[in-house]
Amino acid sequence: MEALSILAQVAEPADFGPIGAGIGYGLAAIGPGIGIGYIVGKSVEAMARQPESAGMVRTTMFLGVAFTEAIALIGFVVAMLVQ
Amino acid sequence: MSDAMTEPTATPDDAAGDPTDSPSSDSSTTDISPTSLPVQGEPVEYMISLDIAKRGLLIAPIIVAVCALIWGSEGAAGAAVGIGLVIANFLLSAALVSGAARISLGLMMGAVLFGYALRLGLIFLVIVLVRDEPWISLPALGATIIATHLGLLMWELRYVAINLAHPGLAPKQAKS
């Protein structure tokens, strides 16, 4: 027990900041990835069923993807600043 | 932004032939999958991105000035890099999607998903390269990326929403 306490005093505290930031950013990118896949999948389905509405669907899809991507950017920036 | 975003576009039947219209259609025309045909119409993504880029360059001096007031010259440099990243992100995304849509619908889906990973990787790379530089402020860079991305999208959404709700009534520049 005494040896453990000596070891604990001698050992330098580990820097888990970069690891935590990497894990946090990875988790933050999962949700937008699923969301973008869902948006694009449904848009492709809509364009295949109704090609005449492709312009409207593409517009909505592009904006939806950009908004969803903002979540990943927020996670990235927060991870970068917290680190 | 033009009305092309809401106007009906030509169908793939124009290229592949409608099997229900002609009684002499053979099985080769009916086997064509809609996802293997190019998406008809104008590249609306590119038009949206150009609009966003123009507005981003319009408000860039204001954002840089605000960041310079808060964080100093490092803040101004961070804001400039952030705005550049956001605009490049939109333009690259639009180029990938529009280019893939000219080839096929299925490729467009792959381009959007691959583009998501590619663009996040590029942003990560740029930030890793500049983060230890003494002339840049990371909080300014991060705040600018988030605020500019969301702000420009909301600004563009205002025009797109009007266009989608009332096709043909989108705000247009007055002719001189």
Keywords:
heterodimer; A: 83 residues; mainly alpha; F1FO ATP Synthase; 3 helices; B: 176 residues; 68% helix; flat
Short description:
Chain A is mainly alpha-helical and 83 residues long. Chain A has three helices and no strands.
Notes on the structure:
The complex is a heterodimer of chains A (83) and B (176). Chain A has one domain (17-82): F1F0 ATP synthase subunit C (F1FO ATP Synthase, Up-down Bundle). Chain A is mainly α. Chain A is built from 3 helices and no strands. The radius of gyration of chain A is 22 Å and the shape is rod-shaped. Chain B contains 6 helices and no strands. The chains are: A mainly alpha (83), B mainly alpha (176). The A-B interface holds A 29, 32-33, 36-37, 40-41, 44, 47-49, 51-56, 58-63, 65-67, 69-70, 72-74, 76-78, 80-81 and B 4-13, 33-35, 39-42, 44-45, 48, 90, 93-94, 97, 101, 105-106, 108-109, 112-113, 116, 119-120, 123-124, 127, 131, 138-139, 142-143, 145-146, 149-150, 153, 156-157, 160, 164. Chain A: Belongs to the ATPase C chain family.
CATH class of chain A: Mainly Alpha
Largest interface: A-B, 36 and 51 residues
Please state the oligomeric state of the protein chains shown: heterodimer
From the N-terminal CA to the C-terminal CA of chain A, the straight-line distance is: 34 Å
In this structure, how is the largest beta sheet of chain A organized? none
Protein structure class of chain B: mainly alpha
**Low-pLDDT windows of residues of chain B:** 15-20
> How do the SSEs of chain B run, as a string of H and E?
HHHHHH
Question: Helical region count of chain B?
Answer: 6
| Percent of sequence in beta strands of chain B | under 5%
Outline of chain B, from the CA principal axes? flat
Helix content of chain B: 55-70%
Membrane topology (chain A): Multi-pass membrane protein
Pfam families (chain A): ATP-synt_C
Family (chain A): Belongs to the ATPase C chain family.
Protein name (chain A): ATP synthase subunit c
